## 1
Amino acid sequence: MNKFLSIILFLSVFAITQAQKLNTVDNSYFITHSREEYMQKLAGLPCGINTNDPIPVILQKLHTYLVNFKPSAEYPDDVYAIESNLQALKSVKEGGYGIGAVLVDPAGKIIWEAHNSQIQKHRSDLHGEMTLLTEFEKSRLAKKYVNIYVYKPGMMVFSSAEPCPMCFIRLATAGVDTKYCTPGPEDGMVTRVSCLPSSWRDMASKHKFEKGNCSPEMQKVAHLLFFSTFLDNRGPK
Ligand SMILES: [Zn+2]
């Protein structure tokens, strides 16, 4: 084999290895359409869930898994993914939708946490990211980090799920960089920015909206918490 082919072969193997290492999860995982499919995915997580476990047992196994999960340096956003997933799980345990979010200061420290509470509080606006920003902005701590209503540089929202159109616009208005754990192929706005009216698109372009560097395990948990309505068909009928 000549030298050129050897280099090509080496680069191909390297690229495949890197792709396997960095990511990840096939994008089709992030679409779930039936309870059966959902339960199979839950049972596929490395936390001992059986498809016939009662819901409180499933949620307890997820909780134990999350609090014992050790983030590796390979996935630097897992520290935020774990906390936002724990917030999401808290909402699921309350009977709500499983989306959680944390606010991170420029030093990388989590300074606020929240979760979706639409069902709990009978409020259409209380998505995870909306609740996070609204509660934080009402707090005394906000004075240090927010200029009137725009967040100071270096602040970051980390959400367990890709922001929806409503949350995306709120985050863009707040001027805060945003990362998320599970992509939303059927509902996320980050990958559909080109659909926005031009002035909103321009506003959003001034800040980062990107998928976090999270482990496959945290991405899967975030997706399954997001779709926890399959557990008991919760929400308006
Ligand atoms: Zn939302």
## 2
Amino acid sequence: MKIKENIHLLKIDFNIQLSPEKVLPRFVNVLLIFGEKITLVDTGVKGSEEKIFSYIAENGRSYSEIETVILSHSHPDHIGSAARIKELTGCKILAHPAEKTWIEEIAVQEKERPVPGFSNLVDRSVTIDEFIENGQILDFGNNQTAKIIHAPGHSAGSVNLYFRNEKVLFTADSIPLKSDIPNYDNAHQLLVSLHVIEKNSDYEILLSSWTPAFSDAHEIKKLLAEGRSWIEMIDKAVKANYKGTETEYLEFCRATVHQLGLPPFLVNPIVDRSFRSHL
Ligand SMILES: [Zn+2]
């Protein structure tokens, strides 16, 4: 989908296998920047290169022009096909240094953040070629640039991209969605990063990894307010339930999931990890 002449968003559907019987359908957006060369922001899950390359061909360009892949962070649906795309194109991989271990050693990520069906979502580890940092300006040629905004919280090295000339802000997974899976490393930092997005009035189009594009200022404000109130609601539920010592594994997580009216399959180590970041 064309957002601006040189900025496109491609939706990639995938499934998380929760158990042999239960599948959770999700999607992730890949951002394509058609500059002098082609830059991708994120790569979708394992095997997404076919869909990305087809989309590039439909737009009259070739996948061999991919020169750079920026990874907004290390989670499986963002890095899944990065190694394969690097192998096929020789592109450079850019990411924030705080994401290094989970991108370059996916076995460590799987152990520390065990997303169900992890190996179906990520092809393999990939080496970062250049680190990016807060405030850095990336130049794509054709008078197109983007500023890196470090947005910790969802993960330690999550980054957002701000395209000043096009007035487009890409927020990756930084905006929590109302009633969606609690899925972050640090609740306090997540709210701080959300505040940075809220007070930035200098964009007209807001993009994220898990929503359609937003261009209506009222809808954007509502999205951000709902994300904030969802995290505040989780904060209250966590503080009411996480007390003392658990007598049973994930006991506090179970009580909090129940209180929030979330489905029982969210009683799992990833959600527990997010809840504990409130304490
Ligand atoms: Zn993520």
## 3
Amino acid sequence: MKWEYNSKYPAIDDLRSKAKRKIPRFAFEYLDGGCNEDVNLYKNTTELREVELAPYYLNNYSGADLKTELFGHVYDAPFGVAPVGLQGLIWPNSPEILAKAAVTHNIPFVLSTVTTASIERISEITEGKAWYQLYHPADSSLRDDILKRLEAAKYPVLVLLSDVPSFGYRPRDIRNGLAMPPRMTLQNILQIMARPEWAIKTLIHGTPNFATLKPYMEKGLSMKQLGLFMNKTFSGRLNEERIKPIRDKWKGKIVLKGVATEADTELAIKLGLDGIIVSNHGGRQLDAGQSAIKSLEPIVKNYKGKIKIMMDSGIRTGPDIARTLASGAEFAFLGRSFMYSVAALGNEGGNHIISSLKTQLKQVMEQVCCANTAELEKHLIR
Ligand SMILES: Cc1cc2nc3c(=O)[nH]c(=O)nc-3n(C[C@H](O)[C@H](O)[C@H](O)COP(=O)(O)O)c2cc1C
């Protein structure tokens, strides 16, 4: 796979600015924002960027290998596409575009329960290589039905989300009356009319819907009914009793996402889970929480080797991925960066961002004289 990126958009800020110009304001603000006053959203990236690497210029060196083994699969790079809900609202077809780019580049794509492409469609695109992120269903028969569909579609990894016990307080979304499909208020209609390419593509592609959940929903639900359906269907809060039966039933790997403490890491190990993603949902849930990189440090110190440790939240660039791995994470995930790229560049966006991130990470590794991703830890300046 060639790493080809569009030289007009080499920086993540180029993509973010272009995305802002191309999609309606309610969609951009849903993607871009954090919760409350965005304190943790900001800290995630600024505190990650305090991590510094040492370059060893005079060592012998034969090149950088980005390949990284995870759960028995050798990926071409140590990063993947984090689950994002309502993707089709941000850009039509975006989960399909990203899943295709991810499988072509041999990196993992994680499908959200509440996005706009179905379990089966994404499995087809990724040839059974995508991971699935589960919002915990309140009803065990619904949970079992989803698990059965995942098994039939050959998903190797199930990601259980722990950090949405209650829905984040997001001022922009509240102000915009965010809903799916978008509510046709005068304000939203004006925002859509100002973005004709988004409007036409959305019209052609069809109104976005919760594709995976369709079989469980009555047809033609109003937004209010849809909200009631979601509240009734999912019990966001996870605990030991809810995780245990999933561990017993699911034969593949299980990853707990949204871990911020040693206590939750310890429980994940006790319950026989295979990995954790240290994450604060990209600063969208707990504004008074720690940045992900700060949460990572004691977890790596005390639990590395006992469970696979991954991280997301605040990672935007190749140097950011290098900082995350140097700090002891074994794999990185990014949410917004991928979506900025697809919103900015459409079909081309998936390949563009993955190629650019690979190129940037390789350059960092060559610069510091690091042979493979596991060795980045040796370059951490403590
Ligand atoms: C618009 C948006 C929607 C998201 N939806 C989900 C979701 O449905 N499920 C989930 O597990 N995480 C969701 N996340 C969190 C991401 O998986 C990931 O943790 C986060 O984006 C990482 O931070 P970053 O955006 O700074 O890279 C969402 C994030 C964003 C930005």
## 4
Amino acid sequence: MEYAVEMRNIVQKFGEKEVLKGIDLKIHEGEIFGLLGPSGAGKTTLIKILTGQLKQTAGEVQFLGKNAGNGKKGLPDMGMMMDNFGLYERLTCYDNLKLFTRIYGVPGKKADEALRRVGLYGDRKQPVMKLSKGMRSRLLLARAVMNEPRILFLDEPSSGLDPVTAAEIHKLVCEERSRGATIFLTTHNMEEAHKLCSHVALLHEGMIVEYGQPEQVCRRYNHQNKLLIRLYGGEQVELSNNRTSADKVKGYLEQEMVETIHSTEPSLETVFMELTGRGFE
Ligand SMILES: Nc1ncnc2c1ncn2[C@@H]1O[C@H](COP(=O)(O)OP(=O)(O)O)[C@@H](O)[C@H]1O
Ligand SMILES: [Mg+2]
């Protein structure tokens, strides 16, 4: 099986401080992968290493089965959306993208196509400094996808956005996956991760402390393993999820008393609070 990205024992030190302590991760081709973790965990640092903006202290990265060289050598076509990868404030939306069509070596008309896709075509003549936060995010995403990259890195793509704009970004991310791109994103938003990602990893204190499909991870932490039943009339019943509850559950069902029935596996948010001992921003 070939992976889009394969990391082996990635270590990053800044002076004495070891920010990444040996990261091993495999990202499947064509998936949306979510790297989760509290702020300061090292998520942006890992994206910088993968996109060739930072040379790791130790360890190696392979893209599509091939070793990445130093810096940008050997990197596949990639797109990225991150805060520090800025926009020119005085230039219009169109001019910002147009500049990058030259850098990417793609036809100029891709700028207009990308603006249409993110719903900014009507604002193409606006200078970036006049854009709202949501419009900026959409412009950054337009730039990231303009060259149809095989791998897309999105560093907190929807942080600070209203739910409608966040949903638009999610839709575009899913379109990119449908096109065949592999997406590597970081997020604080556990609902977003659960909804979008086929696999998530939790980075905590420089190490990956959990990895899996969101549903699978949640099931692993179902310590309570109970059934929560709400009966018509409002009574809540908590039963162990084993054969000792069978007669009771059968009875409720036979008498058509069950309004809702749930198992107690936690949400991703609860799992990650348990693992990190704190919440996300
Ligand atoms: N260039 C740098 N020099 C020194 N320390 C850095 C540098 N970049 C990041 N760090 C430190 O590394 C840690 C992880 O940062 P970062 O990767 O930005 O975390 P995250 O994106 O998960 O919030 C932080 O403690 C941060 O201060
Ligand atoms: Mg960050």
